Amino acid sequence: MSEAQVEAPVLESAEDFAKRVNYQILHPALTEQEMHRQSVIARQYGAASLVVRSCDADSALRFLNLGVVAVASVAGHPWGGNATAVKVYELRDLLRRGVKQIYAYPNPGKLKSRQFQHQEVELIQMADSCIEAGATLKVVADNDLLDEEMKIIVCRMAKRVNAHFVASTRPRDLELLVKHCGFRVQLEVGGVETYEQARLALAAGCAQITTARLEPVMQGKQAELAAARLPS
């Protein structure tokens, strides 16, 4: 094929891109009114999910009403230090209420104490509950309290319990996740603040990204598409 015949690459549409973006609104002081306002933004852009605190799950489910945007929530947020029974109950309660995507936060103290069997049994219970409910379990493989060794161990546990995703809250951990998760579990990276960060994460192998700044990320995508349509 000659150079003149080479077709320009097909750019992913804003709608398709948004289906890989989770909008996280987990601030501890978030009001009901603000949560509803953010739900409107998630629905406006067609985000993959709106990630809410467990106390907001019912309101988010009512407001989004099984539309394009799924409702996701968290078990053990933010540090994973809850007792196993509490964490598993929180997850099962969210499933009972209709949440179909849950982020699980491992216990950093148990991991650093090398109580790996304790942590894996906890994840098995959570994974089994999600599988039974037809829901997606996303294991959060990092926080500021875990070193690289512990993050690798969480990746291995997530694969063994058949979690659907391993998630990181920091883009800089992506290389580690790609290396240690292989093809058995999908990857998601959070802490994304710009479209460029989102683009790079997806290009590096992430199936999804998570952001607390949906509007600027989506506006960056729209700007890319607009620039691509400009005549040369």
Number of helices: 10
Number of domains: 1
> What share of the residues lie within helices?
40-55%
Q: What's the CATH superfamily, by name?
A: Aldolase class I
Instruction: Give the class-level CATH name.
Output: Alpha Beta
The Rg value, from CA coordinates, equals: 18 Å
Helix/strand structural class: alpha/beta
Unreliable stretches: 1-9
Give the distance, in angstroms, between the N- and C-terminal Cα atoms: 22 Å
Overall 3D geometry?
globular
CATH topology description: TIM Barrel
**How much of the sequence is in beta strands?**
15-25%
Instruction: Tell me the CATH architecture.
Output: Alpha-Beta Barrel
Main beta sheet: strand number and arrangement?
Answer: 8 strands, parallel, barrel
Question: How many strand segments?
Answer: 8
Give the H and E element order.
HEHEHEHEHHEHEHEHEH
Mean pLDDT: 91
Topology at a glance:
Elements lengths: L13 H5 L2 E5 L6 H14 L3 E4 L4 H8 L5 E6 L8 H14 L3 E4 L3 H5 L3 H18 L2 E5 L7 H13 L4 E4 L5 H8 L4 E7 L2 H9 L4 E4 L2 H16 L3
Parallel strand pairs: 1-2, 1-8, 2-3, 3-4, 4-5, 5-6, 6-7, 7-8
